[in-house]
């Protein structure tokens, strides 16, 4: 594992809201705006952009936590810009804060955690228990 970053560095991910991002459950459509679930997935990806440059060929990242504060809606066709900031990297733990915005409007903020593990260890940890 290598770390070419410093605390405070940022990565940006842009996501256009589509119908696939709407809040839906087994009982149908809840509302036609970007769901908290979809925002969370985009936030985790923004933090993973750091991990992609840190991990070695024999390593992979795995999510360890996610907090999200959903503040306002993002509508179909709008572009959400998620900016992840590296808060800390201790050992193999990578912690990022993030803000998701449509223009000047804050849509969500929070934190993500990921851990970088050797692929062989990860395969053992994630193997089905028989």
TrEMBL record:
Matching SUPFAM superfamilies: Thioesterase/thiol ester dehydrase-isomerase
Domain Fluoroacetyl-CoA-specific thioesterase-like, first and last residues per copy: 17-120
Q: What name does UniProt use for this protein?
A: Predicted thioesterase
């Amino acid at each position: 594992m290598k770390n070419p970053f410093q605390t405070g560095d940022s990565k940006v991910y842009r996501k256009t809201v589509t119908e696939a991002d709407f809040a839906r459950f087994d009982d149908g459509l809840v509302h036609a705006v970007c769901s908290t679930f979809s925002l969370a997935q985009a936030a985790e990806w923004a933090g993973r952009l750091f991990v992609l440059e840190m991990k070695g060929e024999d390593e992979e990242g795995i999510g360890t936590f996610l907090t999200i504060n959903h503040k306002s809606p993002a509508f179909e066709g709008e572009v959400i810009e998620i900016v992840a900031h590296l808060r800390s990297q201790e050992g193999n733990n990578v912690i990022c804060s993030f803000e998701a915005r449509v223009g000047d409007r804050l849509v969500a903020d929070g934190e993500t955690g990921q851990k970088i593990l050797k692929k062989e260890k990860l395969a053992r940890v994630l193997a089905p228990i028989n």
